[in-house]
Amino acid sequence: MSDQTLSNLSREERRFDPPAGLAADANVKEEAYARADSDREAFWAEAADRLDWGQKWDQVLDWSNPPFAKWFVGGTLNASVNCVDRHVDAGNGDKVALHWIGEPEDDTRDITYSDLKDLVSKAANALTDLGVTKGDRVAIYMPMIPEVVVAMLACARLGAPHTVVFGGFSADALASRLADCDAKVVITSDGGYRRGSASALKPAVDEAVEKTGDLVRHVLVVRRTGQDVAWDDSRDVWWHDAVDGASADHEAEMHDSEHPLFVMYTSGSTGKPKGILHTTGGYLTGTSFTHWEVFDLKPETDVYWCTADVGWVTGHSYMVYGPLANGATQVMYEGTPEKGRWWQIIQDLKVTIFYTAPTAIRTFMKQGREIPDGYDLTSLRLLGSVGEPINPEAYIWYREVIGGERCPIVDTWWQTETGQILISPLPGVTAGKPGSAMKALPGVAIDVVNDEAQSVGNGNGGYLVIREPWPAMLRTLWGDDQRFKDTYWSRWEGLYFAGDGAKLDEDGDIWLLGRVDDVMNVSGHRLSTTEIESALVSHPKVAEAAVVGAADETTGQAVCAFVILRESAGDGGPDIVEELRKHVQKEIGAIAKPRQIMVVPELPKTRSGKIMRRLLKDVAEHREVGDVTTLADSTVMDLIKDKEGSAA
Ligand code: WTA
């Protein structure tokens, strides 16, 4: 974001007060900030008390060996019991947990908490029969069908950490994740529905399993589309054979509060994805409490819908663990946002709380308000946004067109690493400003600092950091404590560095400015420039590659690549650009496919050999190229711009 846009943003004068009714009846009121400030640990202990524990903790936080935190030390609990059994035991077994909507019209399932308990227990028994025991890792590579939730909760029940890999990732990406966390079992489906047709998933699993030698013992396959699949009798097991007939009784063991719950891989600023480790007690406390707090959830009456795919952290924290621990009734939709389908779902199921990403909102804005205007959206009472900064235009459109000017918007900032929302308005307290995520939630210590780690103070910009541990924080990177320290805790002593730039306005409210490292944000998905560069360079025709995230009206940022071909490749042939785009798709997945690839003779480098991505970004965003004086060869940019001219 340029300084110009930034100063425009900070002059935003519109304020939206919480609706009076919501404010009066809000789950969390203003006093929470002061209460949390006076005793942070007591505040989080109270949040943890909302869960069912086997054994209560002896110590709220052990921070004696930073940055390795332990929360609710000595406590035991089971995440699956908290998300399922306890609601059944409380007499809410008949309550709908999931209104599942398939992509094909009329393909729907309502799953109550009792149903869910039976399904999860059966799946836990089936996984046990396949040899899964506490501590084993299980990979999940599935579409948005109820079985993915069942699979996650069954793993949690057994204490077998799951790693959900987004179904849009390639076989190679899946293989590297399987290998990194030593997954013993993969749960998948034959395929899923996307944009009206069945697309296969199992072949990618077969390829990934092949690549990882004899690591994976079993592949458990849900039949979703009925398409033909290759089958290996010694390894593959149909879900309906293994799970349907299994016993619906499963005695859940209580796990240590710090027992690993899941590993979620995310892009970092180097090529290798990082396995973010979340554990049980703190994660479940942080996600369930903030879900109740930020969305003001009233479990008896609300119908909640988070549109995120379960392959991302939002799907984990605010579709599976947070809402289910709170006993919410929610919508789960298999498809992608097609025209009026979302609004139809909101109308039909009378959704009251809706949580989505700015990129989706901008897409709908482009299609025009006539589409949502054709539906009755008056059931909505609260809207949420996540994944990237929401620009004021999108905020206002969301508020007016979807929220009918009644619904507060909670712009929630957090990360795979933070596990839970850390910055957000409180819907019953905060007067929202379009474009600002406002303040740290009660119990969370956020700051904006300069290069010397000093607070910048109101009216200034800098780096977003976190000063105190929080319950759902990542505990480490899977198998790599050193990288965990280096990545997040080494820049400044005792501060967690989030990788985002931010500004405090005159009121002290926070404006997120996007990443300051080599991570791009495309449609709210994190992609690493280095990872895509390595993918490009792994192509035999490519000598060197540089990737930048260029501003894009719909997706926030778009992947733009500059490549130098090997001499042996000549001019690469007429289809070189398409060939390279496909190659990236194969290596990482369709979301990483560059929007634009330019074949160039040289890349702009400093004298020390560092690629100056800033200049490439100028080209990709069609701007006047900035200062080139630090380039080793200042004529390089002319060569690149010539290329651009001839390509345009
Ligand atoms: C960005 C997604 C501005 C930010 C939950 C962060 C945001 C990265 C917001 C994490 C927001 C997320 N406003 N930026 N409300 N929410 N981000 O790990 O750059 O996929 O560091 O987690 O998304 O992305 P991740």
UniProtKB/TrEMBL annotation:
It comes from the Bacteria. Its cofactor is Mg(2+). The modification N6-acetyllysine is found at K610. Keywords: Acetylation, ATP-binding, Ligase, Magnesium, Metal-binding, Nucleotide-binding. GO terms for molecular function: acetate-CoA ligase activity; AMP binding; ATP binding; metal ion binding. One of its GO terms (cellular component) is cytosol. The keyword Glycosyltransferase does not apply. ATP binds at G387, E388, P389, D411, T412, W413, W414, Q415, T416, D500, R515, R526. InterPro entries: Ac_CoA_lig (IPR011904), ACAS_N (IPR032387), AMP-bd_C (IPR025110), AMP-bd_C_sf (IPR045851), AMP-binding_CS (IPR020845), AMP-dep_synth/lig_dom (IPR000873), ANL_N_sf (IPR042099). Residues 90-470 form the AMP-dependent synthetase/ligase domain. The keyword Zinc does not apply. Mg(2+) binds at V537, H539, V542. It is an enzyme of class 6 (ligase). CoA binds at R194, R195, G196, S197, T314, S523. Residues 531-610 form the AMP-binding enzyme C-terminal domain. Its EC number is 6.2.1.1. Coiled coil: none annotated. Residues 1-23 are annotated as: Disordered. Residues 30-83 form the Acetyl-coenzyme A synthetase N-terminal domain. One of its GO terms (biological process) is acetyl-CoA biosynthetic process from acetate. It catalyses: acetate + ATP + CoA = acetyl-CoA + AMP + diphosphate. Acetylated. Deacetylation by the SIR2-homolog deacetylase activates the enzyme. Catalyzes the conversion of acetate into acetyl-CoA (AcCoA), an essential intermediate at the junction of anabolic and catabolic pathways. AcsA undergoes a two-step reaction. In the first half reaction, AcsA combines acetate with ATP to form acetyl-adenylate (AcAMP) intermediate. In the second half reaction, it can then transfer the acetyl group from AcAMP to the sulfhydryl group of CoA, forming the product AcCoA. HAMAP family: Ac_CoA_synth (MF_01123). Belongs to the ATP-dependent AMP-binding enzyme family. This is Acetyl-coenzyme A synthetase. The gene is acs.
